[in-house]
Structure to design on (60 residues):
């Protein structure tokens, strides 16, 4: 059995909420903020990576 790779989403807001996709397969709603110096944040529940802007920047 393999574990699916977490999703990466490019968004245009730095403060947002993640609920994992809904009631059937989701998780409690958590509010996240993308740090200016990093440009991305991962949800602590579903590991979805949220990237601010139009390009995916590598962690570095």
């Amino acid at each position: 059995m393999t574990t699916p790779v977490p999703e990466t989403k490019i968004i245009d807001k730095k403060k947002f909420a993640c609920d994992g996709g809904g009631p059937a397969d989701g998780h409690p709603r958590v509010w996240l903020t993308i740090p200016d110096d990093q440009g991305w944040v991962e949800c602590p529940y579903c590991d979805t990576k949220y990237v601010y802007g139009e390009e995916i920047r590598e962690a570095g």
The two ends are 31 Å apart (CA to CA). The mean pLDDT is 87.
